[in-house]
Write a structure and sequence with these properties.
Length: about 160
């Protein structure tokens, strides 16, 4: 390993890089297969691949973006923006705003699901044969009184 204080990268094995990035080795391999991080070249002497602190930082960036709900495609776009010196912060902000809108839509959908589930549970007597279960009837569309009011736009006639 080389001293990072002199501006030279510290090389490490994949297991060490994984520990420093707080991910599993398989996560690093997955990111490599997805093209999010470059796979270091295997040394000609057949030794281990060496990962740099820069790769560890990139992995942390990817994980943090995933925690915020960004897809791997969106993360790839963010990484491209980060690497492009001509990128303006407004471009990155636009991606974050789009993700926030997506999250807000998902929250609204989950609230709708919660109300529908509450309505189904309230309508269910909680006993009796499943053939007459109001929840199952509603899911099958047999009971219009307790119909599930969730159909997405694609499912509506």
């Amino acid at each position: 390993m080389v001293n990072t204080e002199q501006g030279i990268e510290t090389a490490m094995r994949i297991s060490t890089a994984a520990k420093k990035a707080r991910v599993g080795v398989e996560t690093i391999r997955f990111y490599e297969r997805q093209g999010l991080i470059a796979q270091p070249q295997r040394p000609s002497n057949g030794g281990f691949r060496s990962y740099t602190s820069e790769i560890v930082e990139r992995i942390r960036f990817i994980r943090q973006a995933q925690e915020l709900g960004f897809s791997l495609k969106e993360i790839d776009e963010l990484l491209s923006l980060k690497a492009d010196p001509a990128t303006d912060c407004a471009d990155v902000r636009a991606h974050a705003e789009a993700k926030l809108e997506d999250v807000n839509q998902k929250i609204a959908r989950l609230i709708t699901i919660r109300f529908a589930l509450n309505a189904l549970i309230e309508a269910c007597p909680g006993r009796g044969a499943t053939h007459y279960c109001s929840i199952l009837e509603a899911l099958e569309g047999r009971n219009t009184d307790a119909a599930v009011p969730l159909q997405s736009k694609e499912m509506r006639p």
